[in-house]
Amino acid sequence: MSIARSNPIRIGAGLLLRIARAFFNAYRLWRLRSQGLQCGWNIYIDRRCKIGCPANVKIGAFSNIADAELYALDRITIGERTILGKGAFLCTASHDVYAPDFRLLTKPISIGSDVWIGTRATVLPGVTIGDGAVVGAMAVVANDVPAGAVVVGNPARVVRTGRACPVEFDPLSLATVDWRNSIKRLMTSLHQGPGTEPE
Ligand SMILES: CC(C)(COP(=O)(O)OP(=O)(O)OC[C@H]1O[C@@H](n2cnc3c(N)ncnc32)[C@H](O)[C@@H]1OP(=O)(O)O)[C@@H](O)C(=O)NCCC(=O)NCCS
After folding, report:
1. Residue located nearest, by CA, to atom 15 of ligand 1
2. What is the pTM assigned to this prediction?
3. How far, in Å, CA of 199 to CA of 183, rounded?
4. Domain 2-192, classified CATH 2.160.10.10, yes or no
5. Nearest CA-CA partner of 46 in 172, 179, 140
6. How many whole angstroms separate alpha carbon 165 and alpha carbon 154?
7. What does the pLDDT look like over 34-78, one tens digit per residue?
8. Which of 37, 16, 69, 2 minimizes the C-alpha distance to 186?
């Protein structure tokens, strides 16, 4: 027997799970902020996300960082409502491969607001990604990406332009609690009583 999606027990359990996730997220943010990460309490960072040198990183409100890696030997700036997909890699460091001492070279990375970085995409040192841009899965971004562009491939090439930013979407609701909707759903289901058929 499967439990209907509208069943209050199922909705309540889902809500509890999301509350627990929000709680552990707050703990992670507290730890990272104490290491110098610049962000508010209104972002989500997955527990498997790796941030080297958090003091070099600034993340804007409502951004959602999955289990990405931020190798921040130089400054990384991320705007608001931006999503980093699973396995995305922001790399600020390289080496001078022509110098006899193979010296370390670092350059900052800047990512705008309302950007989506797809799964396993890599952003190389010095890159700026404009507001509303999308980086496709597995892309390797070596050059700047204009605002509203969709780029794919290695090296990343523009396949579309003029993407409008999704103004009514809250990336945080993907991971933690969308309080308004969750409570509304719970109240509706309590009112209607439990069901047993899936929707
Ligand atoms: C980039 C993406 C958003 C599609 O954007 P789109 O504007 O709808 O692009 P289309 O699907 O029309 O594809 C346009 C071209 O790019 C190619 N393409 C699309 N995504 C690609 C990718 N990730 N890598 C390489 N090429 C890609 C298509 O094959 C197509 O090529 P063609 O014109 O030669 O046929 C999507 O393909 C993508 O990569 N999504 C990310 C998925 C992800 O990371 N999910 C994580 C889960 S949270």
Report:
1. 159
2. 0.87
3. 19
4. yes
5. 172
6. 25
7. 999 999 999 999 999 999 999 999 999 999 999 999 999 999 999
8. 16
